[in-house]
Amino acid sequence: MKRILLAILAAAIAPLAVSARQGAAPAAAAPEANPVSSALRGIVARESREVVAAADEMPAAKYSYHPTPAQMTFGHLVVHMATFNFGMCSTISGVAAPKQDLNETDPKDKLVGALKASFDFCTTSLANLDDSKLGEQLPFFGGRTASRATLMFVLAADFADHYSTEASYLRLNGLLPPSAQPRK
């Protein structure tokens, strides 16, 4: 087994050693024009799949579930995520968000549809965003302002926070969150 691993390692390293002896430097990747905006768009695409899949995974009868009286119901969490996405992506992009009329007791299909629509809105509204105005001050919670870059980081961080809450609620109901399920 060790010989096989050494042979594989040698085969992988050999081209690099030849290049080094010949004085060839590895090709440098071209710098990205808008790394922050591009990263956010990638995060939106990736997180939308997991967050929406988790909302789909929870049975409709469990949308009223909450682990303790002080915690929000799963339905309230979905409403919160959709509303947050619409609001933050609108503020970051300067594109008006569509009006939403959501209630945590709405049917699951309406809530999941709104969540999907919120991610679609983020994808569309952030499509032309670039890094030229990262320092621009925008309205933030509590009457404060924050830079566009800060709001972009808050949006990305909240995707992780929201998904982790979804995952916890799913596990407490004997369900595996999408990221823990075997690949299909």
Task: Tell me what you see in this structure.
The chain has five helices and two strands. A hairpin with a 5-residue loop joins strand 1 (137-139) and strand 2. With 184 residues, it is mostly helical. It has one domain (34-179): Four Helix Bundle (Hemerythrin (Met), subunit A).
Summarize the structure.
This protein has helices at residues 2-21, 35-57, 74-93, 108-125, 148-172; strands at residues 137-139, 145-147. With 184 residues, it is mainly alpha-helical.
User: What do the pLDDT scores average to?
Assistant: 89
Question: Which fold does the CATH topology refer to?
Answer: Four Helix Bundle (Hemerythrin (Met), subunit A)
Let me know the number of strands. 2
CATH architecture: Up-down Bundle
Could you say which structural class the secondary elements and strand pairing correspond to? mainly alpha
Largest sheet data:
2 strands, antiparallel
Q: What is the global morphology?
A: globular
What is the total domain count? 1
Supply the CATH class: Mainly Alpha
Query: Secondary-structure element order, as H and E?
Result: HHHHEEH
Rg, Cα atoms, Å:
22 Å
The poorly predicted ranges are 1-21
